[in-house]
Amino acid sequence: MADWTITASGDTATFTHVADGYWAPRVWSGRGLAIAEADLPALDKAVGAVLKLPIYWLARARHAAIWSAPRYDPDYELVYLTGPCRTGAPAPGYRPAPAFDVDLVHLRGLRIRIAAYRSASTGR
Fold it and tell me: How far is 11 from 56, CA to CA, in rounded Å?
């Protein structure tokens, strides 16, 4: 990881590489980046280091807000999570549904909310 310097602040991580010129990372702003294949293992380690930082988890929690905090209804013994879930036949209100869809990009946020709820409600 010696070739990379990482600065994390707010919701952003800045990765700085020591290479200049041809071997420097290339960025198409808003679209993507290109990294020398030889630098991928070090970049992978750098990204992994950021994922271990508390600031990453704070940012994840803010962005997991697409899903509401779970709310337990003791009358029905159901846990409600407001978020991007849908069925083939949309209808107002909560209705029984044998299947539902969640976009892949939102699964991690859902999992975080469920894990936090389960951790907080242990022993209910």
Answer: 7
Cα angle vertex 113, ends 110, 117, to 5°?
Answer: 140
∠ CA 52-65-98 to the nearest 5 degrees? Answer: 110
- Segment (H or E) for 117: helix 107-120
pLDDT in tens, 51-68: 888 888 777 776 656 788
- Per-residue pLDDT of 75-123, as tens digits, reads 988 889 888 888 877 777 888 776 777 776 676 777 888 788 888 877 5
- Write the DSSP string, 43-64: HHHHHHHHHTSHHHHHHHHHHG
Distances (CA, A) of 79 to 69, 76, 124: 10, 9, 13
Which residues pair with residue 72 across a beta bridge?
79
User: Which residue type sits at 12?
Assistant: T
CA contacts within 13 A on the Cβ side of 123:
1
Q: CA 6, CA 98: separation in Å to the nearest integer?
A: 46
